[in-house]
C-alpha cells in the first residue's frame, strides 16, 4: 500500500556509499574510522543528478584525506549493478551526484497506476491518534473570514494527517458557557424589549413578514433603538429577538432580566449551533465530534482542574482570588483562575478541555488551529498543562494570520449585498467552494493572505484552481480519446526518455515524501503548491510529448503516464476536498 520512490532511492544512495567505503577500508585505502552523518538531497537542477550526497565533504577530515580525493575513491569503488542508478559523478569540492536509470522512472509510473487512489499514502503516523480542533467559533454569531481560513486549513490538515497514516479526528469546541453566552443573552434581551416597545411595535406593523427590512431598519436607526457598547450588535441578534417575539409575543417583557435572557438563549443558541454546522457542511467540513464547554461544567471537570492545581501546590490566594503560580513554572506572569466572586476565568474550562483531550480520551497530540491573536493564550495553556502533569509538547498549535478580501485591487470590508461584514456564508455565496478551500491553503498559515475575489471566479490559467482542474479535465479527455480510437494501456512494459516525461515522473515521485514533510510540519499549503506545480509540468509535457501520434510503444507509455498523472492530481484534490472535473 505504501510506495515512496524518493525515500527508497535515498536509502539506495546511502547503501551504495557505505558499501563503497567498506571496500575501501578492506583494501586499506582509508582507515576504519566512525563516519559522520551525511545528507542525501535532491539538487535544484537535475543536470547535477537526481540525488546528491555530501559524504566526502563531511568525512574527509575523519578519514585523513581531502574531499575530492575521497569522493573519487568512492566513485571508483561504487557498484551500481542491480540498483536504481546509472552513474555517479564527482562535482565541485567533493559532492557525489547520482543519476537514476530508466527502470526507476518506469517503476514510479507502474506503482502509481497500481496503487491508484492509495498512491501518496504513507505510514508516518500509523498507531498515533491526534485531535485537530479548528474553527470553534463562538455560537453567538455567524462565522467570519478568519474562521473561513482556519476551517480550510484545519480540515485539510486533518485530511493530510490521515493520508500520512495518523488517526486524525476533527473537533469543534462549542463555547456555550461563560461570559460570551451571558453577553449573548443580554444582547437578545435588549433587542427583544425594544421590539416590545412602542417604536418596535410600530416597525413590526410596517414591515410585516419582511425580516430583512425589519432588521435593517432597527440596525440602521441607532437613535431609536440604541444599544450599549458591551453587547453584540449584529443583525442576527435582531433576527433572533424578532423570531422569538413572533413565537412568544411580549410574554417575557415583564419577566426578570435573568429569566428573559435565559429563555432567549435557550431559543437562539441551538439555532446558531445548527447554523454553524450547516455552513460548515456547505464548506465540506464534517466534524467527528462537537464538544460542548457546558459539559465540562456539568460533569465537574472544571472544578476538578482547580482541585488538581491546588493539590499540586501551584496556586495561591490574593485579593480574594485564586491565582496560578505561573512564574514558578517558567511563565512570564501569574494569572487568575478563580475570580473573587468564585467564578472561574476562561482559562479554567480550557484547561479541563485539553485535559479531556490528552488524558481522558488519550490522544497522543492535541492540535489547535487558532487565530494570530492567541500567542499569549498558547503560552499560558502550555504552563497550565505542565502544572497538570501533562507534557506540554503534546499540544501543538497552528496560528492563522489575518485575511484581507481584495476586489479590484482594494480591500473589501463590507458585503455589497447587505452592508454587513462578510461572513463565511456570504463568501461562499460569491466564491465557489473549490476556490475558497484552495485559496485559503495557498500560503502558510503564519503568513498574511490577500484573497483575490476577482481571481477566485476567473476561468483562466491565472486562477490556480481552474488551472489544476483544467489539467485533470485535459488528462481525462486524452485518455477518453485514446480509448475511442481503441488504444488502452493494459500493463505493457513502460519506457521513458524525453526530459518532459522524466520531469513529470520526478514530480509524481515526490508526493509520498512531501506528504510526510507537510504532515510533520502541519503545512497543508504544501499540497496546493505541489498540485499546481504538477499541473504546470503536465501542461509542458502535453505541449512537447504527443500521445496520439507517437509510435505504439511510446504511445502506450505516455498514455500510462497520463493516467498516473490524472490519478495523482485527483488524489491531492480529494485530500483538499476539491472537485476533480472530467470535463470543463
Description:
The structure is a single chain. The protein has helices spanning 5-26, 55-59, 67-77, 102-115, 145-163, 179-196, 198-207, 211-220, 235-248, 257-282, 293-299, 301-311, 347-360, 375-387, 424-430, 433-440, 453-456, 464-484, 499-521, 525-544, 552-575, and strands at 40-41, 51-53, 85-91, 95-100, 129-133, 167-174, 289-292, 315-318, 321-324, 335-338, 365-371, 395-400, 403-407, 410-412, 449-452. It has 584 residues and is of the alpha/beta class. Strand 3 (85-91) and strand 4 form a beta hairpin. The chain is flat. The two termini are 32 Å apart.
> What spatial form do the alpha-carbon principal axes imply?
flat
Our count of helices gives 21
Low-pLDDT stretches: none
> What is the number of beta strands?
15
**Which structural class do the helices and strands define?**
alpha/beta
Strand portion: 5-15%
* Gyration radius from CA atoms, angstroms: 30 Å
The largest sheet has its strands arranged as: 7-6-5-11-12
Helix content: 40-55%
End-to-end gap: 32 Å
Q: How confident overall, as mean pLDDT?
A: 95
Largest sheet: 5 strands, parallel
